Amino acid sequence: MKKKIAILGSTGSIGENTLKIIKKDKKSFQINLLTTNKNINKIFKQSKEFKVKNIIISDLNSYRKAKIKFKKSKINIYNNFDQLNEILKKKNDLIMSSITGLNGLVPTLKSIKYTKKILIANKESIICGWNLIYKELKKNKTNFIPVDSEHFSIWSLLQNYKTINIEKIFITASGGPFLKMPKEKFSNISVKKALNHPNWRMGKKITIDSATLMNKVFEVIEAKNIFNLDYGKISILTHPKSYLHAIVKFKNGLTKLLLHEPDMKIPIYNAIYFPHIKRIKTNKLNFKILNNLELREVDIKKFPLIKLLNKLPNYPSLFETVLITINDYLVFKFLKKKINFPKLIKLIDRISNLKEFQKFKKIKPKNIDDIYQLRDYVSLKLDNLGI
Predict the structure, then answer these.
(1) Is 170 found in the same domain as 120?
(2) What total of structural domains would you count in the chain?
(3) Do residues 276 and 155 both lie within one domain?
C-alpha cells in the first residue's frame, strides 16, 4: 500500500529535495497535497508530474491568478490551511513541513492532527512556537522528526537514549564564507561574497545567517527546545567541511558522532523512511576529511552574535520571536545594501538588547496570535528606527 504524503512548501529547496527522493520510488508514495506561496507555475508542474489532485496557494493574488490560468485543470486549488479537513479526510502517513519563515507556523500547527508523522524543516516554528507544537504532537499522538542536518543527527544519535543520559551536545558550524577571513576585512564584505557559501546551496536569507553565525544561535535554540535541554549542555564547534554534524557525549563515558556529506537529501531520505533503513547512493567515506576535521571553538570576537545565547532564558518565551523578527528585518536591509556586514552584526546585537524587547523574555507564548502580533509590533518599531 502506498504511503500518503503531503509536502508543505513543495517549491522550496527542502520540498524539491523531498520530491526528488519520491521520484525514484513513486510506487511507494501517493502525494495528496502540495503547497506554495506564490510559485504557481512550478507547483502546477509538480502536480502534473506526481499526479497530485490538491494544491494550496497561500498568496491571495497568486491564488486568483492560478484559478484563472489553470481553470481547465482537474486540480483542486485552495487558498489557505483552514481547508485541510476537506483535503486530508484521513490521517496522512507523513507530512513534510518546509515552509520558510514564521509563515510556516500556522500550517505546521494545523497539519499535525492530519498525519501520523510530521517532519519539520521550518526552524522559525520550532524556535518561536515549540511549546504550541509539542502540545499538538502529544494531543494527536503524532510522531515528530526534525529535518535540519544538525537536529536530525542529534535525534538519530539519541535513539535508545533518554535526555537525562546526555552530558553535552556539540553542533557544528561551517563558519560560512568568512571563517578564515580576518575581522578587520569584514567592512569590505559584499552581498555577493556573503552569499557565496562554501558547502551548502541555500536560500539568500539562511546563507547570510550562516555568514554571521546567527543560524547557529537559532539552531541551539531549536536543540534546546526539541531535546528539552538547558543551554549549558549545548555548544558550537566550527568545522569548515560540514562533514560532521553533531557530537553527543553521554554520562556513561560514550561519545557518538554522526557524519554525512553536506547534502540535505540524506537527512530528508532517512527521515522519510524511518524506522526502515534503505540504501541511498553516496560517496565513499572521506578519510582525508576525517583525519583533519578542524574542530574549533567559535571565535567570539569574529562572530559576537553567539554571545546572545548567554542571555536567553531556558524556558519558552516570546523573546525568540523578537530575535527572529529583528534578524529577518536586518538581513533584508543588508541584502538590499542599506547596511554593510559589520553594521548588520552590530545592529542585531544592539537592538535585541533594547529594554523594550528584553521584557518579552518573561512572557510565554500562549497561542499563535501572541507570536504574530509581536512580530508585527517589532517590525513597526524597527520601521520607526529608520534603518
Answers:
(1) no
(2) 3
(3) yes
Q: Record the pTM.
A: 0.94
What string of pLDDT tens digits covers the 387 residues of the chain? 899 999 999 999 999 999 999 999 999 999 999 999 999 999 999 999 999 999 999 999 999 999 998 888 889 999 989 989 889 888 999 999 999 899 999 999 999 999 999 999 999 999 999 999 999 999 999 999 999 999 999 999 999 888 899 999 999 999 888 888 888 888 888 889 888 877 767 678 889 999 999 999 999 999 999 999 999 999 999 999 999 999 999 999 999 999 999 999 999 999 999 999 889 999 999 999 999 999 999 999 999 999 999 999 999 999 999 999 999 999 999 999 999 999 999 999 999 999 999 999 999 999 999 999 999 999 999 999 888
CATH number at residue 92: 3.40.50.720
Q: Are residues 136 and 77 in the same domain?
A: yes
Q: Which residue has the cell 543560524?
A: 215
Answer yes or no: do 290 and 141 share one domain.
no
CA 256 vs CA 22, 161, 334, 369: distances in Å? 30, 12, 39, 40
The rounded distance, in Å, linking the Cα atoms of 39 and 146 is 25
Q: Are strands 234-238 and 296-297 parallel, antiparallel or unpaired?
A: antiparallel
Q: Give me the long-range contacts of 13-16 (CB less than 8 A, separation at least 24).
A: 13/201, 13/202, 13/203, 13/264, 14/96, 14/98, 14/121, 14/147, 14/264, 14/268, 15/96, 15/98
User: Do 206 and 337 have their domain in common?
Assistant: no
